[in-house]
Design a protein that fits this description.
The protein is an alpha/beta fold and about 180 residues long. Helices cover about 55% and strands about 5% of the residues. It has a four-stranded mixed β-sheet with strand order 1-2-3-4, sandwiched between helices.
Length: about 180
């Protein structure tokens, strides 16, 4: 999904605000539970808008205000963002960037795992070729959630990191629904 930030707050309103787009983004992610890719495509060069969009749950951010000569590079970066590849943030916020925590698809995987789904069911639901591929992605997500200290402690105890990572994930989701 492509979402502009500069939208009116209500039908018939002639003024626009980036906060209107942020509100839609938050609604999609937190109230509606939309797990698809959301790329913000906007004219805003304000770093605060990019930070708010990432915090609200966008997967990428692209400022469409650019020179004609820069558009091919921006489109190439947009394609990379849609594939889930990470790009560094440019100083003028004119390039795509991806949030570095948990992507929407990774969040969906964690939610399915929290509901007791098997790797086979997760692979089928999320389009992974095999249950092993889904489990490998899950393992990388667990590494994102666990601090190095958590991982050392779990290794010493012989405890699987899946349980601790899901505990962290569930507490994070609970704090989002409260906040």
């Amino acid at each position: 999904m492509l979402l502009d930030l500069q939208l009116p707050f209500s039908h018939g309103d002639k003024t626009v605000s980036s906060l209107a787009g942020i509100r839609i983004l938050e609604e999609l992610r937190h109230q509606q539970g939309f797990y698809g890719t959301i790329i913000v495509l906007t004219n805003s060069k304000a770093p605060a808008d990019g930070q708010r969009a990432l915090a609200a749950g966008c997967d990428g951010y692209l400022c469409k205000r650019a020179r004609i000569s820069e558009i091919p590079e921006m489109l190439a970066q947009l394609k990379m963002a849609i594939k889930g590849e990470v790009i560094l943030v440019a100083s003028m916020m004119r390039h795509v960037f991806i949030r570095d925590d948990i992507s929407a698809k990774e969040a969906r995987l964690l939610d399915l795992l929290s509901c007791g789904k098997s790797w086979t069911e997760i692979a089928r639901d999320l389009g992974y070729k095999t249950p092993k591929a889904a489990a490998n992605v899950g393992d990388r997500i667990f590494d994102k959630l666990l601090t190095p200290q958590d991982q050392q402690k779990l290794a010493a105890e012989g405890t699987k990191k899946r349980h601790k990572a899901l505990e962290i994930w569930q507490s994070r989701r609970l704090s989002h629904t409260r906040g």
